[in-house]
Design a protein that fits this description.
Helix content: 40-55%
Domain Nicotinate/nicotinamide phosphoribosyltransferase: 48-83
Order of helices and strands: HHHH
Number of domains: 1
CATH topology: TIM Barrel
CATH superfamily: Aldolase class I
EC number: 2.4.2.12
Shape: globular
Distance between the termini: 52 Å
Structural class: mainly alpha
Radius of gyration: 17 Å
InterPro entries: Aldolase_TIM (IPR013785), N/Namide_PRibTrfase (IPR041525), Nicotinamide_PRibTrfase (IPR016471), Nicotinate_pribotase-like_C (IPR036068)
Family: Belongs to the NAPRTase family.
Pathway: Cofactor biosynthesis; NAD(+) biosynthesis; nicotinamide D-ribonucleotide from 5-phospho-alpha-D-ribose 1-diphosphate and nicotinamide: step 1/1
Number of strands: 0
Length: 120
């Protein structure tokens, strides 16, 4: 029973989490594409419209890297160092940090008040 539990844990870590991340980012990409087609002149920039902040919830650098790489199946932007390093090391991928500069999530922006927001 212990061996089965460890196998299940490794399977969950190596397969389930990354396929979930890849699937969710794919569904997000389809939704973003739909709304861009309805409201924008082009799909320009679509590969950078959904940014991965999954490293905040990852338990290790390895899981942050795996989740980030799964997200990069559908999008091209990341600033997660573990993802960039793993992509270059294991896949020889020319992964670069986000081309539009540092991207902030709502938690990192929430610490500033409205008066300081422009300088954040």
């Amino acid at each position: 029973m212990i061996a089965l539990g460890r196998l299940e844990q490794k399977y969950s870590k190596a397969v389930c989490s990354l396929t979930t991340v890849a699937t969710l980012s794919r569904e997000g990409k389809k939704l973003i594409q739909q709304y861009l087609q309805e409201t924008a002149d082009s799909l320009e920039g679509l590969p950078f419209k959904l940014h991965d902040f999954g490293a905040h919830a990852a338990s290790t650098e390895e899981t942050a890297a795996i989740g980030g790489l799964a997200h990069l199946v559908n999008f091209q932007g990341t600033d997660i160092i573990a993802t960039i390093v793993a992509g270059r090391r294991y896949y020889y991928a020319p992964i670069l940090p986000h081309p539009y500069g540092r991207v902030f999530n709502s938690r990192s922006r929430a610490k500033y008040d409205d008066e300081l927001e422009p300088g954040a």
